[in-house]
Amino acid sequence: MSEIAAKAKRPVDVAVGILMRPDGDVLLAQRPPGKPYEGYWEFPGGKVEADEDILAALKREFLEELGIRIIDAQPWCGVEHVYPHAHVRLHFFISHQWEGEPQSLEGQAFAWQGQVAVEPLLPATIPLLSYLGLLQDDLQAA
Fold this sequence. Notes:
Elements: H1 3-9, E1 12-19, E2 26-30, E3 41-42, E4 45-47, H2 54-66, E5 69-82, E6 87-99, E7 110-113, H3 129-141
Parallel strand pairs: 1-6
Antiparallel strand pairs: 1-4, 2-3, 2-7, 5-6
Organism: Undibacterium rugosum
Domain Nudix hydrolase: 9-136
Cofactor: Mg(2+)
């Protein structure tokens, strides 16, 4: 069995956070050099460690990567995607409550976006943007 086929059989759980400001803007981060899909934009997050709760993984990753402490986050959706290097199961959370301002602790760029205009985006992120846009529209209408 090839390495890719083996990875495709065992999805890697990944906690992904969407920080959403009151105006609907969301935080996107650019994947740093040396990682697969280097330079692509994504919602921040990372792998769930063995025996780690998904929300705990999200909080840990945001503290390690961006210096932000997530106070509260709600599960939003789940997506499975097979990349050439890995099969991932993405667990998306939306957070409106956090402490701190994003810092580039891994040398990554980041940007607050209303209408997402950064490119290129990670393929698993693209289909979610229309649904996210509906949430942003609801916030702006309220």
